[in-house]
Amino acid sequence: MISIKSSREIGLMRETAKLASSTLVHIESFIKPGVSTEELNQICHDYILEHGAYPSPLNYNGFPKSVCTSLNEVICHGIPSKKDVLKDGDILNIDVTTYLNKFHGDTNKTFLVGNVPDEIKKLVDVTYQCMRAGINTVRPGSHIGDIGAIIQEIAHDHGYSVVEEYCGHGIGREFHEEPQVVHVGKKGTGVECKPGMTFTIEPMINLGARHCKLLNDGWTVITKDKKPSAQFEHTILVTEEGHEILTLRPEESVEFKL
Ligand code: MF3
Ligand code: CO
Ligand code: CO
Question: How large is the average pLDDT for residues 52-70?
């Protein structure tokens, strides 16, 4: 069942989504060589609690921390650790999900640490373009398959691959709801978008092959070839006119043209 949010519920979703996005804004200035992902986790945790919310990942299916921190070849669900200390040239994704007003808001961003080689900077840049192009397809009557189709097209045009094992998802009273939002696909296929639906779009794009491997900690997903992977995520609302990006940050433009 796909939940359609009422205007009251949409108001509550806007608040939790806004807090998730402001957490990403808040953490940015702390991201530099020498800081551990454990320290970044603690800063996000404190910020979310100070704003009267709960970090959804903490204890979610046994996840031990408050945010996911995915470094370089980590595709997603990296566990913050004292041992993971940032160094110049790294890329780090921080995935924040907040629980406020009984609703979840979910967003992530891949940050550049110091001087990142051009080849990897371009991967991050194209991954953002993939997410924005996927978002741009969303309007009443569009299909979930349209999102994956455009993401796949852009990624492949650049010689990158798209992770298929992990997807976007409906979101609201539950962290993960229907529908699944796969980041590959065919235009005109899958669930039809209707006003009041809320879901995430969160493509994971690899510099090398798409294949992944789950580490023994049961969470961390890495690329099989150990090449870097980038990701961006937003929580989207389908509106009568098209869509609204509930987790949009001030640094991002409302309009996005390729
Ligand atoms: N925030 C992730 C997502 O985008 C899910 C993290 S699940 C966790 O769906 F348990 F690892 F936190
Ligand atoms: Co998500
Ligand atoms: Co997320």
Answer: 99
